[in-house]
Amino acid sequence: MIVIMADESAAQKALAEAKANHIEHVYASENRVGFAGLKDIDDVPFINEQQVVDVITDHPGAMQVSRAFHPTDTVIQTPHSTIGGQNFSLIAGPDAIESAEHVLAMGQAAKAAGATILRGGSYKPRTSPYSFQGLGEQGLIWHRAAADALGMDMMTEIMSPADVDLVGKYTDIFQIGTRNMQNFSLLKAVGRQNKPVLLKRGMSATVDEFLSAAEYIASEGNRQIILMERGIRSFDQKYLRNTMDVSVIPVLQKLTHLPVLADPSHAAGVSEHVTPIGLAAVAAGAQGLMLEIHDQPAKAWVDGKQALTPDQMTNLFAKANAIHEL
Ligand code: PEP
Ligand code: MN
């Protein structure tokens, strides 16, 4: 149940009273108070009725990330980026951090093409345990140095709650990958710290499962969440790795106030189809794109088949900006 109060101070008062009455899972946003476990205004007799404007009971289960709880777009500020609302955010970088020189060179190209966030994995979720697993802390150090040298934000994947402090020492934005979208202890752990989290949609996750995963992060206190569609599993994987669910972008934007970005690299899985798929996502309203890039895709340590060259990225970002403007 979401109770709309007359103003923010009435909402704060109701929140304090709910806590004093030992009500669990209660949160405030501006002039609204959300009671995630209650459905009836009679359950909260301590609320000053004269200050109640309206009561919403038919909101989605993922309450805090819903527009019923926070009607306006969430805009997330990082040291070098403003994500969400009317802003259009560009993220690029190699799949995996390979060396100090390589991540710096890829960062230079990304920045020149308009990206403000430098991505790169140092903890890699690989299908096979025998594949390259990432450089660990050494990768984080090189990645941080490149981002600092270029005045960009660093974003990197985290796979275990045990790594939050270590990864958080370096990164500006935590990335949670498709395979960990429902790793609830990881979601709670990043929810307990205050850096933004980019949450990728599970490859087979429904919209409600995706929003509930985001709610796990919010339930621990962190509402700086960026959603990313990265392609879902479908019945034909012969020509494309996944299927970019373009249609989910406006659906999510109706349901949630969080920024919705798209990753055409993992959706396509092959570089020649990344551009049209990425542009389609922007046309559908994506508030940003993430691309994997490599100067020598055939030699990339991970995901080379889908990596764009710096020139291809520059071309795609220019077209994406034009479509976003439109
Ligand atoms: C990645 O961004 O490199 C990655 C592993 O993505 P996903 O979780 O979407 O597969
Ligand atoms: Mn990848």
UniProtKB/TrEMBL annotation:
The keyword Transferase applies. Its EC number is 2.5.1.54. Keywords: Transferase. GO terms for molecular function: 3-deoxy-7-phosphoheptulonate synthase activity. It is an enzyme of class 2 (transferase). It holds the Pfam family DAHP_synth_1. Residues 82-315 form the DAHP synthetase I/KDSA domain. It comes from the Bacteria. NCBIfam families: DAHP_synth_Bsub, PRK08673.1, PRK12595.1. This is 3-deoxy-7-phosphoheptulonate synthase. It comes from Weissella thailandensis. The gene is aroF.
